[in-house]
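EI: anyone free to look at a 111-residue chain?
SC: sure, send it
EI:
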Amino acid sequence: MSPRPRTITLALTLLVAACSNGAPIPVDPVVVTAERTVASMLPRLSRSLTPAIAEATFGKPDETTGSGLLIYVYRVEAGKRVFLSFPGFAPIMGARVQDDTGASQELPLRD
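SC: here you go
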């Protein structure tokens, strides 16, 4: 092996170490799909939920879509997706879960 690849590998290792300052990289457990389930989201779905609160509660959405609405899509267990529909940055209008076959069901919103 020539010295050049070793030098590059060493330089990259040192660069990563210098940038991290030894501090662990924070991991938001809510963002991990395996820990985000429909059951864990249900108690937090309320009529006062806004996009900002949704991001603080569930993490960044896996997708953002909508035409006229702001729709946050979160991937959850077993290939399901939870859709949270907002009229802009105002409180939620509706929530639903869709399974991997495309069948969907409305989710209740607490008052």
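EI: The longest helix spans residues 3-20.
SC: 👍
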